[in-house]
UniProtKB/TrEMBL annotation:
Residues 364-423 are annotated as: Disordered. This is ATP-sensitive inward rectifier potassium channel 8. It is a multi-pass membrane protein. Residues 182-352 form the Inward rectifier potassium channel C-terminal domain.
Amino acid sequence: MLARKSIIPEEFGLPGLASRMPRKPVFRDRVNKARFIAKNGSCNLAHKNIREQGRFLQDVFTTLVDLKWRFTLVIFTTTFVSSWLLFAMSWWLVAFAHGDLDPLRANGKHCVTDVQSFTSAFLFSIEVQVTIGFGGRMITEHCPTAITVLIMQNIVGLIINAVMLGCIFMKTAQSNRRAETLIFSRHAVIAVRNNCLCFMIRIGDLRKSMIIGATVRLQVVRKTTTPEGEVIPIHQIDVQTETVVASNSLFLLAPLIICHVIDKHSPLYDLSAMELQCSDLEVIVILEGVVETTGITTQARTSYVSEEIQWGHRFVPIVTEEEGVYSVDYSKFGNTVKVTTPRCSARELDEKPSILIQTLQKSELSHQNSLRKRNSMRRNNSMRKGAAAGGSRGLRRNNSGIASTKVQFYSPSDGGQSLNAVT
């Protein structure tokens, strides 16, 4: 049985009308990708399939410093105990070869006195290398071999002490420990500053000891494809900052706002507020400098993905002057406030300057309206308070007038000549 045709033509039906309606551009949700630099500054990178592992042994000191503390302590203990055991075996062999273990053969001429077993040789090895010297065991001039072993153990002991103690010192004085007190704002902001669209972050130092020659570098990391079709998964693009142009280093005495002007040379030049939410870029911030107390170069790092960049926000001021001293309120370090900002890209602002002018005019008008509302609210509150105060004064005046009214009457005893007044 054939289906009956509809009376309404197909081009005027719901499917036909829906197909001809103009559609708004739909932005796909950004796929969550791994960060290149974590918020704490650690690199999110795993090295796999390294075939030439021997390269790490060629630089033993750096390898020991880079190891975790538990591995370093295990190696530290194992190295000393192994050296003690090795030279204990050497002392035992010297005593055995010279006949010190046999009282009849020694004839009072021992290489090392009171070494009669491996345990006593081990104790003597510890005394020699650690220079304890209890006084019960000692070498004599009757055995040149013992003198040679003593010299070798002293030299090896000094080398082990220098390497291991230096490794422990370097691990305790690593530069990344100083970077723990260099802080960055949780979010980055994009707003208009000096009539330009700017990308801004805030940095600070919690210690009073300063970072000498501090410099800040910004890089944008994103996945790009060259015109030849080559895919670069981690393409690093340097970003110029205002502070670097003005001077070579920062005076990081108080928290500073690092500003990057989004111009035609910026990798953020073509991004609007909507496109930023769907992009997969990551802005890396690197703060470098020399620690004033130790003279060691330190580096602090962090990064901002698109979800951590607030469009149309500005950092609130946190430095105030109190009783002749500048005070920094770190509880507001990452606080931002909304400001009127065009939602278009910096390229569109350069092509159409009227957008920025209109936005600034609207911002000025809204600011004036808010001021007028505040003034009117204050005026109304003051009028209400004045009316309430005036009503209370009038009521008091009326009550005082009623209370001061006098009533006069004649006293019958005086024959109506005298008057008594009652208030």
